[in-house]
Amino acid sequence: MSEVKNPLEGITKESTAKLIEETLEMYPEKAKKKRAPHMSENDHEDSGCAIRSNKKTVPGVMSARGCAYAGAKGVVWGPIRDMVHVSHGPVGCGFYSWGTRRNLTSGTVGVDNFSGMMFTSDFQEKDIVYGGDPKLEKLLNEAKELFPLAKGMSVLSECPVGLIGDDINAVAKKMENELGKLVVPCNCEGFRGVSQSLGHHISNDTIRDHIIGTTEYAEEPGPYDIALIGDYNIGGDIWAAVNVLEEIGLNVKAQWTGDGQIEHIAATHQVKLNLIHCYRSMNYMCKVMEEKYGIPWLEFNFFGPTKIEESLRAIGECFDDKIKANVEKVIAKYKPKMQAIIDEYKPRLEGKTAIVFVGGLRPRHTIGAYEDLGMKIIASGYEFAHSDDYDRTYPEMDKGTLVFDDASEIELEKWVEHFKPDLVASGIKEKYVFQKAGIPFRQMHSWDYSGPYHAYDGFEIFARDIDMAINSPTWGLVKSPF
Amino acid sequence: MSEECAVKKVTEITKEEVKKVSKWIDSKEYAEKNFAREALVINPAHACQPLGAQLAAYGFEGTLPFVHGSQGCASYYRSTFNRHFREPAPAVSDAMTEDGAVFGGQNNLFEGLENAYALYKPKMTAVFTSCMPEVIGDDLTAFIKNAKQKELLPDNHPTPYANTPSFNGTHIHGYDAMLKAILSYLSEGKKVEGKCTGKLNLIPGFDGNVGNLREYKHILEEMDVPYVLQADISDTMDSPLDGKYNPYPGGTKLEDAAEIVNSKATISLQKYATTTTMKWITAECSGSADVLPMPFGVKKTDEFIMKVAELFGKEIPQSLKDERGRAVDAMTDAHQYLHGKKFALFGDPDYLIGLVSFLLEMGAKPYHVLCSRATKKFTKEMQALLDSSPYGAGCNVWTNKDLWHMRSLLATDPVDMLIGDTHGKFAARDTSTPHLRVGFPIIDRVNLHRSPIVGYTGAINLLTQIANKFLDIVDDTCEDRFFEMMR
Question: Does ipTM come in above 0.90?
Answer without folding.
Answer: yes
